[in-house]
Design brief:
The relative contact order is 0.04. It is built from 25 helices and no strands. The protein folds into three domains: 57 residues, no CATH class; 214 residues, Serine Threonine Protein Phosphatase 5, Tetratricopeptide repeat (Alpha Horseshoe); 120 residues, Serine Threonine Protein Phosphatase 5, Tetratricopeptide repeat, CATH 1.25.40. By secondary structure, the protein is an all-alpha fold. Pfam families: MA3, MIF4G. Belongs to the eukaryotic initiation factor 4G family. GO terms for molecular function: mRNA binding; translation initiation factor activity.
Length: 528
């Protein structure tokens, strides 16, 4: 036996040391008890051997790996391989479009993408596959679950019913298929848990258990959001909660089922408590009593007991949650929340409020008839005395009529541009530019405005800024030479600018075109 082994080793082509993967014996012995088989990832590398020790005398102690699995062709499993430019079936092309729409769906783009979705769903088969995709996305993305419930409501109202399939007399509608999908998922949960018992590998079983739990919670969360949209009846909700909390005699419900029932109450408990049906309110009270009893059981995990306690506290607080539930929001809602937290005036209000006169906003003095909002200090020193009292060196007061520095001009230019984006008042912006009092700064003003155009992410802001430049040129505050020189400064390094701002050629071209159309620039100013 030793001779045959030695002959086998001698016949093997010995690799140079640079191509060998070597591990210390002590390092490999750490994994001996747990890893008794070669990992699949290592097998797929196609490595012919592993050297167990750095000692050359032990190089014969090898573990021959199994060959890597063969690549399975699509045709071998009844699928069609993807080919660039190949003709797709109408249904397959529609499903690809629907997947792309759902991947881009956000509250900000909801209405636009909904209209695109309605144009694609034209058959019952496409409808069924769309519902399956929406359900999977809602389960996988809990933050967007409420948005997908809104999508389901709109689709159920705007999509028509399709003719019944052969052998059936019931037409196919969105709501019917969606609720059937939720019911099938709910009824299949127990079978999925029983299938976990056949998995022996610890890591694989842990992943499978996590997946079953995620799908159960996601299904119950979506069902609760649909109930809030009046797409699910009261009795369905109460029956699901009672089923989740049912357990064999002498045993407690599973941890996942209790958490799923708590998820339903957290999402839809306030609406269930205000139901017009006394039977619904009675069943909700019964479920809450059962949860309260479970919360006092020491054998229940502490995490679940804390979840139950939160629900009971929420009920006592008239169903007002202690913590905010994170859901998808529009950008305007996020900005409003941030402004409220910082104590700022909402940007939607500032656009309605009258703006201050330009001489006050830009730091000018009071005009005749103006009344100062704050009286001077009693000691008569003004801000210099206040600075001295705070132990800070006072700054010399600006001399009235003195020219502003470049830093001050740049700051005031940025302020007037930001205010213009809020108010869109060209007359006010024109007065602010006049108050700068520096004709030599106009070229820098044009460049700063063009830079803000490139930095802006909104098409509306880009357009109104370009319109402001034209308005300033038509009013004689900036000249065509200023605009042409600023455009030239960007076009000379256009390749570098495009790397940072991909839409720079389009925006600069739009600016030049608008200037020519308005008569600010001549046709000869455009590059040939």
């Amino acid at each position: 036996m030793h001779a045959s082994t030695a002959a086998t080793v001698d016949d093997t082509v010995v690799k140079p040391d640079s191509e060998r993967v070597k591990y210390a014996r002590d390092f490999l012995m750490l994994f001996m008890e747990r890893y008794t088989k070669c990992p699949v990832e290592v097998q797929q590398l196609g490595m012919p051997e592993i050297v167990i020790s750095e000692d050359f005398e032990r190089d014969q102690q090898r573990q021959v790996l199994q060959p890597a699995p063969k690549i399975v062709k699509a045709s071998d499993v009844g699928l069609q391989a993807y080919k660039p430019g190949a003709q797709l079936a109408p249904e397959e092309r529609a499903m690809r479009t629907i997947k792309g729409i759902l991947n881009k769906l956000t509250p900000e783009k909801f209405e636009r993408l909904l209209a695109q979705l309605l144009e694609v769903i034209l058959t019952a088969d496409i409808l069924q596959q769309t519902i399956a995709l929406v359900f999977e996305n809602a389960v996988e993305q809990p933050t967007y679950c409420a948005m997908y419930a809104d999508l389901c409501l709109r689709l159920s109202k705007e999509l028509p019913t399709f003719p019944p399939p052969q052998g059936s007399n019931r037409s196919i509608g969105f709501r019917q298929i969606l609720l059937n999908t939720c019911q099938d998922e709910f009824e299949g949960t127990e079978a999925a848990r029983q299938a976990l018992t056949s998995i022996t590998e610890p890591h694989t079983r842990e992943v499978a258990e996590r997946n079953v739990k995620k799908r159960t919670l996601g299904n119950m969360r979506l069902l609760s959001e649909l109930y809030k949209q009046d797409m699910v009846k009261d009795w369905i909700m109460t029956q699901c909660m009672e089923t989740l909390l049912t357990a064999p005699k002498g045993r407690l419900p599973t941890e996942d089922n209790v958490e799923a029932a708590c998820e339903m109450i957290t999402t839809a408990g306030a609406r269930l408590a205000k139901s017009e049906k006394a039977e619904t309110r009675s069943k909700l009270d019964s479920v809450l009593k059962q949860l309260e009893k479970l919360g006092s059981e020491r054998s229940v995990p502490s995490r679940i007991r804390f979840i139950i306690r939160d629900i009971l506290d929420q009920r006592k607080a008239n169903w007002v949650a202690r913590r905010e539930v994170f859901t998808a929001k529009k950008l305007d809602e996020i900005r409003g929340q941030a402004e409220a937290e910082l104590g700022m005036i909402s940007s939607t209000l500032t656009s309605v409020l009258p703006s201050l006169p330009s001489h006050q906003r830009l730091g000018g003095g009071l005009l005749d008839g103006d009344v100062p909002l704050l009286p001077p200090l009693r000691s008569g020193g003004g801000p210099e005395v206040a600075a001295a009292a705070a132990g800070k060196p006072s700054k010399p007061a600006a001399t009235p009529g003195a020219p502003l520095s470049d830093e001050e001009l740049e700051r005031k230019t940025g302020s007037l541009l930001q205010e213009y984006l809020s108010t869109l008042d060209k007359a006010e912006a024109l007065q602010c530019v006049k108050d700068l009092g520096s004709k030599a700064w106009m070229l820098s003003l044009v460049k700063q405005t063009l830079q803000l155009v490139l930095d802006s992410m909104k098409e509306k802001e880009q357009t109104v800024l370009l319109e402001l430049l034209l308005h300033l040129a038509q009013q004689g505050e900036i000249s065509g030479e200023h605009l042409q020189e600023a455009l030239t400064a960007y076009t000379e390094c256009l390749e570098d600018v495009t790397i940072d701002f991909p839409k720079a050629p389009q925006l600069l071209g739009q600016c030049a075109g608008m200037a020519v159309a308005a008569g600010v620039l001549g046709w000869d100013s455009l590059p040939a």
